């Protein structure tokens, strides 16, 4: 059973460009979470999605950031007009259900975004 | 609001010895879950162990065990017989059902020395 897949693993963008990060959850998982890890810090929650729905986006910056999880295909985290402060590792996690009683969030390898 | 605090930025231990990593949290929730994740130099986040708050028995996974003190809101990780492969960043995390998200501490960087 393949784990959570993220691509690209490394992404370099110049200031003002767009960054698109992709996440394919584990087979059978319909819940996706995005986290951001700034240098020397822990992971911070950004957004929680189910298929075609955003459940919780309380951690998303109000501007330039958006996320989607379409009925078909991977979840996409989009950052428009990137700035140097967006440089970070972006992790995706997935779970089969929301309830942690019988489930766990499994993490992908992350995408390291560098903004020049 | 829920918070997770790891007060030890760095720790080191000799190979084969035992080390304990500390974690405290703050919440008004009664039903929640606690986790320890390991992040080696590869940056992959790996689940080490989990604890359900309603269970009084401390969780164990091979060489890894926790000391869960619910009243004190403390959740420490003990690594026995430390191995070089245990060298990594360790994150404590909190989850509650209505939250949907993991809340992480700042991390403890553990170095296992030969």
Task: Give a verbal description of the structure.
The complex is a heterodimer of chains A (116) and B (114). Chain A is mainly β and 116 residues long. Chain A contains no helices and 11 strands. Chain A is globular. The termini of chain A are far apart. Chain B is mostly beta strands and 114 residues long. Chain B is 0% helix and 53% strand. In chain B, strands 2, 5, 6, 10, 11 and 12 form a 6-stranded mixed beta sheet that branches. Chain B has a 4-stranded antiparallel beta sheet with strand order 3-9-8-7, with no helix packed on it. Chain B starts with a strand and ends with a strand. Classes of the chains: A mainly beta (116), B mainly beta (114).
Structural class of chain B: mainly beta
What coarse outline of chain A follows from CA principal-axis ratios? Answer: globular
* Cα-to-Cα separation, first versus last residue of chain A: 37 Å
β-sheet strand percentage of chain B? over 45%
Percent in strands of chain A: over 45%
The run of helices and strands of chain B is EEEEEEEEEEEE
Largest sheet of chain A: 7 strands, mixed
| Count of extended strands of chain A | 11
Inertia-based shape of chain B: globular
Task: List strands and helices in order, with pairings.
The complex is a heterodimer of chains A (116) and B (114).
Chain A: E1 5-7, E2 10-13, E3 19-24, E4 31-37, E5 43-50, E6 53-56, E7 65-68, E8 75-79, E9 88-95, E10 106-107, E11 111-115
Parallel strand pairs in A: 2-11
Antiparallel strand pairs in A: 1-3, 3-8, 4-5, 4-9, 5-6, 7-8, 9-10, 9-11
Chain B: E1 3-5, E2 10-14, E3 19-21, E4 24-26, E5 32-39, E6 46-52, E7 60-61, E8 64-69, E9 74-79, E10 88-96, E11 103-104, E12 108-113
């Amino acid at each position: 059973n393949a784990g959570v897949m993220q691509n690209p693993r490394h992404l370099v963008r110049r200031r003002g460009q767009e960054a698109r990060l992709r996440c394919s959850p584990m087979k059978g998982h319909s819940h996706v979470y995005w986290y951001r890890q700034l240098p020397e810090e822990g992971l911070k929650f950004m957004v929680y999605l189910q298929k075609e729905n955003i459940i919780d986006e309380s951690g998303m910056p109000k501007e330039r950031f958006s996320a989607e999880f379409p009925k078909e295909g991977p979840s996409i985290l989009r950052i428009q007009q990137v700035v140097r402060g967006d440089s970070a590792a972006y992790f995706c996690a997935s779970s089969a259900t929301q309830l942690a009683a019988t489930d766990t969030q499994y993490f992908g390898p992350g995408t390291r975004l560098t903004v020049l | 609001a829920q918070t997770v605090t790891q007060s030890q930025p760095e720790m080191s231990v000799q190979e084969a010895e035992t080390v304990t990593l500390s974690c405290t949290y703050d919440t008004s929730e009664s039903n929640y879950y606690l986790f320890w994740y390991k992040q080696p130099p590869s940056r992959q986040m790996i689940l080490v162990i989990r604890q359900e708050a309603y269970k009084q028995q401390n969780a164990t996974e091979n060489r890894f065990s926790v000391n869960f003190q619910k009243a004190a809101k403390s959740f420490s990780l003990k690594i026995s017989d430390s191995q070089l492969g245990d060298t990594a960043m360790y994150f404590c995390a909190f989850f509650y059902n209505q939250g949907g998200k993991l809340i992480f501490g700042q991390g403890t960087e553990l170095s296992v020395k030969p």
